[in-house]
Amino acid sequence: AERIPEAEAVLDLLEKCPEHQKKGGFPVIAFEGLDATGKTTVTQAVKDTLNGVLLRSPPACISQWRTVFDDEPAPIKRAFYAAGNYILASEIAKASTQAPVIIDRYWHSTAAYTIATETSGKVQDLPPAQDEVYQWPEDLLKPDLVLLLTVDPDERVRRLQHRGLEKTKEEAELEANSLFRQRVEESYRRMVNPACQEVDASPCKEEVLKTVLQLIKKHCAL
């Protein structure tokens, strides 16, 4: 905190969060996936359909400092994203007392990218499937459902080029390094308690939304 003034503000926000967040009566649905898999489009459409609240990780109150922490060494950067999940949890707890909550990325993203970065080589070099790194943290509010959007790698690159947005470091790495991308996707698939339900996001957005809403209806009480 002495070196990074923004760290002080993040820690202040974190300390204000009550421990052991309790979910309200409405369902909480998290969406995961690599960039350009359609998370922004789908989460907005689901929010509108369910009259829900849309939240993102890292939450809005700290996202303006993301670029500061992205340039820091890995442990500091990860601490920022981990803290963001707990700050987000307090927002989810509050919002879920009033409406369904849709989340664009949550803990699974933080974990999958960390595991993929810490491991070099192929998918076989990842920690074994039963390893505790794939377990949801006991003290973090859990979503009712986690949906992992996936698209064919070529289609994803095509969408990225079409968007023409500035790439994050992770995105540049995903594009340049297919092994890294495979490690991230496999890490997502190994997550447990809750596990990710995979959704093919390659079809048109109406078709994807239909599939997503069917899964929500099946797994969540609405």
UniProtKB/TrEMBL annotation:
Highest taxon in the source lineage: Eukaryota
An example Gene Ontology molecular-function term: nucleoside diphosphate kinase activity
Keywords: ATP-binding, Coiled coil, Kinase, Mitochondrion, Nucleotide biosynthesis, Nucleotide-binding, Pyrimidine biosynthesis, Transferase, Transit peptide
Catalysed reactions, semicolon-separated: dCMP + ATP = dCDP + ADP; CMP + ATP = CDP + ADP; dTMP + ATP = dTDP + ADP
Broad enzyme group: transferase
BP term (GO), one: dTDP biosynthetic process
EC number(s) reported in the record: 2.7.4.14, 2.7.4.9
Limits of the Thymidylate kinase-like domain: 31-210
Cellular-component GO terms for this entry: mitochondrion
Record's subcellular location: Mitochondrion
HAMAP family reported in the protein's UniProt record: Thymidylate_kinase
Family assignment from sequence similarity: Belongs to the thymidylate kinase family.
Protein name: UMP-CMP kinase 2, mitochondrial
Gene: Cmpk2
